[in-house]
Amino acid sequence: MSEIVIKTEQLTKRFGDFIATNAITFEVQKGEIFGFLGANGAGKTTAMRMLCGLSTPSSGKAKIAGFDVYHETEKIKKNIGYMSQKFSLYEDLTVKENIQFFGGIYGLSDREIAEKTQMMSRTLGLETAMNKMVGDLPLGWKQKLAFSVAIIHQPKIVFLDEPTGGVDPVTRRQFWDLIYQAAEDGITVFVTTHYMDEAEYCDRISMMVDGEIKALDSPKALKESFNVSSMDEVFYQLARAATRSSD
Fold it and tell me: What stretch or stretches form a coiled coil here (predicted)?
């Protein structure tokens, strides 16, 4: 049996009377690329913050990399990587200094950091940019560097929150090549996006509408189930059904 690295049961987050994430239940397996889709305000980021140990759920259960989201948040943080649309890099440090800093934060030895620095400069094509300030890099380079830094410690799971926002289609495709390689190396990739074409790159996806998971399966199975040819059409049907039910 495949190892389950994310497991939630009726996970809920309330802010007063507002339910941001409503009783979501799902599992993610090791090495899987799991897409967490939905429009802005659907509850994606709220759910991810709970899974990362950054926000305490109001109710429900969840285990991340085998650790409980209520009582073992520090252990969760040590076993995950995280990247947001804002990249989480220090723009006033050089490329090399960013790699060294995050390697130290994640507990790598000096030898491991040196090896990772050399490997990243080669695989990312940054040999001539290692001493450049990150703030001076093109957006696509920042994006690829931020992802590589997020998995520098070989975490069990990497959480990517809208990682390809604002970049061109060619750079987005290159970024997904990095995701595929991470999954092949056994890292589970949990990615939120509002680009429906990126759903096609995932092994499975869940689709959230108004804080609830309304569909969960492989892209192929979902398109067959809704009898459509694209994930945009699947999402449109789900959103339309939600609108009708609220009327």
Answer: none
